Amino acid sequence: MSLGKKVKLSNGLEIPQLGFGTWQSAPGEVSKAVFEALKVGYRHLDLALIYQNQPEVSEGIKKGFQELGLKREDLFITSKLWNTQHSPEDVEPALDKCLKELELDYLDQFLIHWPVAFTRGDNYFPLVEGKNAPDGDVEIDDDVSIVDTWKAVLKLPKSKARTLGVSNFSVQHLETIIKATGEVPATNQIERHPLLPQPELIEYCKNKNIHITAYSAFGNNFFDLPLLVTRDDVKEVAKKASDRLGKTVTPAQIILAWSQVGGHSVIPKSVTPSRIAENFQEVELSSEEISAIDALGKEPKRMNVPYTANKPRWDVNIFNDPSEKPAHHQVVLGA
């Protein structure tokens, strides 16, 4: 079973540390996966408009209400503002679209998905004409700043979005919107795993009381690197934890436990019932086991860099990763 750990956000709401992610979950699979997750015991669901599966997620949630006796207040549901919706006049309609797709009256949390604005419109990936990237370049809107968007998000009715936050924001991005508005995001959802521990960002967010939610906890396959759960050093930690606890502990459980150290939440995703259940069987790590996983991050590796990993390409430097240096656009900070 899950340890059922929750942490209190800056607005007083509690968020379960172990959540269920829906990124890259295909329509036709995701409703079953969401219901399976609710049946196992997950109560924190992470969604986004751009995942293009929220209507199917809604079906899984409704089935949970009908067959498991769950109520809306039992769940913590997050969704996100997409990049084509950053213009201030588009922010509340975007939230309304999420609520309509999910057939809900409110979200527990609404995040700015990325600190980048695309050209407005119904096309989620508007393309620049004549670009030579193999699958084209997304059209970046340099006239909309992250301050513009954050100010618009702050005006959203609390009756529709109870918690407001961001995703993929650096210290510089956070500093900019806080200085401009005096309002601190409740959450920053970021790529975080043992190969990308991000200690400076973690420390900054801790000092500002910004909750961290980790995505891509197991790494990913963008660069054909082995997933963390397949690495021998992680398997060795799992074996030691199994011996210490007298039960089988899997590499996935080790990574998810590490991800929650310090009060962070984590949102593993799967459509396989056995893995959904496995991920929910939580363990507490010893200090030695935590240190062994910490050691994997000596040479940080970011997996989710839209300039290099995404098709179509996002021609923008978001993280100041060395691979982003050739990008022609920067995050528009505003003031």
Describe this structure in words.
Helix 1 (30-40) packs parallel to helix 9 (273-280), helix 4 packs across helix 5 and helix 7 (232-245) crosses helix 8 (251-260). Helix content is 34%, strand content 12%. The longest helix has 15 residues, at 54-68. By secondary structure, the chain is α/β, with parallel strands linked by helices. The chain contains eleven helices and twelve strands. The relative contact order is 0.15. It has helices spanning 30-40, 54-68, 88-102, 146-154, 171-181, 199-208, 232-245, 251-260, 273-280, 287-294, 306-309; strands spanning 6-8, 14-16, 20-21, 44-46, 76-81, 109-112, 164-167, 187-191, 211-215, 265-266, 316-317, 329-330. The chain has a single domain (6-330), classed as Alpha-Beta Barrel (TIM Barrel). The mean pLDDT is 95. Strand 1 and strand 2 form a beta hairpin. Residues 18-296 form the NADP-dependent oxidoreductase domain. Belongs to the aldo/keto reductase family. The record marks 80 as: Lowers pKa of active site Tyr.
Question: Which terms summarize this structure?
Answer:
335 residues, alpha/beta, TIM Barrel, 8-stranded parallel β-sheet, two-stranded antiparallel ribbon, 11 helices, 12 strands, globular
